[in-house]
Amino acid sequence: MMLKDKVAVIYGAGGAIGGAVARAFARERAKLFLTGRLRAPVEAVAKDIVSAGGSAEAAEVDALDEQAVDKHLQSVIDKAGRVDISFNAVGIPDTKILGVPLVELDVEQFSLPIATYTRSYFLTARLAARRMIPNKSGVIMRVTTLHSRTGIPLVGGYGPAMAAMEALTRDLSAELAPQGIRVVGLRPQAMPETGTIKEAFEPRAKASGMTWEQWQQMLASKTHARRLMTLAEMANVAVFMASDKASGMTGTTVNLTMGSLDD
Ligand SMILES: NC(=O)c1ccc[n+]([C@@H]2O[C@H](COP(=O)([O-])OP(=O)(O)OC[C@H]3O[C@@H](n4cnc5c(N)ncnc54)[C@H](OP(=O)(O)O)[C@@H]3O)[C@@H](O)[C@H]2O)c1
């Protein structure tokens, strides 16, 4: 029970990563406040958790809307008295941002992931930190990808967006760690069981000339283990990083690429 009685808010909890992290946090006995742009997928995750004996409430919260995030966090404080963990797993559809060479890319399409990802992470982190500072305790978390650290064709503004979020993790930590708040990120390789990865492959399929199976094999061949990570493996690391066992860890994004990317 690594997260017993910790109060955790998850943004994008109806998605693949947000849902997997929510279930893993619940198994470790965290009290969960799950949010998403639409209520139904978040409600489904909360129902699963509650029927397995865990604690979860669902709410519709647009993680780009400052007032909505603030109002929801206040409701968490009113109900649970505190917030210990903020996990941002928000993702925007890759079809909107991938597949166009940079020289042909429209500036609005280039800017979309940079503005969206950084805005959502900044808002959720800043508003959670304001509630954590009085307790001198808390953990703020975000997921990125290896695009933050290596050149990949046809990904538009996605790489800069991921790099910006990892920079924000370091900067938030530099300001918040002296006040007892850790800020950490996870950087998993593609997890093929998520719809996101198939969606990301499709815009590039033609250019790469590969089938979906060949593409997965190509990604797996770049790892030391010659396989891609599962959602459950990623969520287990998230549990550890959110727990007090990781008290020595802040200002960093953990490389979960299984050797695809050197540190
Ligand atoms: N899947 C992977 O293998 C993988 C690996 C490494 C990193 N990542 C990154 O991790 C993040 C999450 O990935 P994922 O696979 O979990 O994606 P996902 O399944 O598409 O989940 C993203 C979730 O974010 C929600 N969302 C979008 N805009 C929102 C907003 N303004 N407010 C609140 N919620 C919002 C989505 O809701 P709607 O569906 O209603 O829009 C969706 O539930 C992405 O940044 C992705 O690039 C993914």
Overview in brief:
The chain has 263 residues and is α/β, with parallel strands linked by helices. Helix content is 46%, strand content 15%. It has helices at residues 16-27, 39-51, 66-80, 107-132, 158-176, 195-208, 212-221, 231-242, and strands at 7-11, 31-36, 55-60, 85-88, 138-143, 181-188, 252-256.
Structure explained in plain terms:
The protein has helices at 16-27, 39-51, 66-80, 107-132, 158-176, 195-208, 212-221, 231-242, and strands at 7-11, 31-36, 55-60, 85-88, 138-143, 181-188, 252-256. Helix 4 (107-132) runs parallel beside helix 5 (158-176). Helices cover 46% and strands 15% of the residues. Strands 3-2-1-4-5-6-7 form a seven-stranded parallel sheet, with helices on both faces. The chain binds NADP nicotinamide-adenine-dinucleotide phosphate (NAP). NADP nicotinamide-adenine-dinucleotide phosphate binds at residues 11-12, 14-18, 36-38, 41, 62-64, 89-92, 143, 145, 188, 190-191, 194, 196-197.
